[in-house]
Amino acid sequence: MGSQWTKDSVYRKAMKAGYRARAAYKLLEIQQKSGFIRPDDNVVDLGAAPGSWLQVIRDLTGGKVIGVDLNPIVPMEGVTTITGDFTDPLIQERIREEAGGIVNVVVSDAAPKLSGQKSYDQARAVGLGEDALAFACTILKPGGNLVIKSFQGELFADLLAEVRKHFYSVRGYRTKASRKGSAEVYIIAKNFKGTCNGTEGPL
Any idea which residues are catalytic in this one (predicted)? Predict the structure, then answer.
């Protein structure tokens, strides 16, 4: 990509503030709009590298903050980082242990490597969202919150409908910090029902 994409005003602002990526401002905006992270929440960040969301989360809560990614995350004070696939049951068990068995919030800014083929990229992004939802269903305590990134397109409505089965309050939201012309959209889901596929989730 050309420099006009990587070094726009939001990027420069993020670098000046010491954030690892411009995405920090997306999370700050979502938090300002919805207040989904509370001061004592334990939070798990999926697809967390390079760690800008972890930086924001660490300032929002005094609870446990855990970042998971296939790629190593440069360590930061007050944050537990795990290298691995969050769909792996062994990784999920380690996350539970690190969180002391209680997870209040799950966030995911994970996105597939883009191919440039809109429908293919959107399908893969929705697939990642489905994986993040399945993870949240198995680990969130009732009343917990979820934020996941997806892409607008014909499959987005299906993902939104699926999230609504598990949370009492669900909305789609586009951040001002997203790049101009971007199809990305966030799903903000609050108040987990405590059920997963019709059965009781973790209590």
Answer: 149 (proton acceptor)
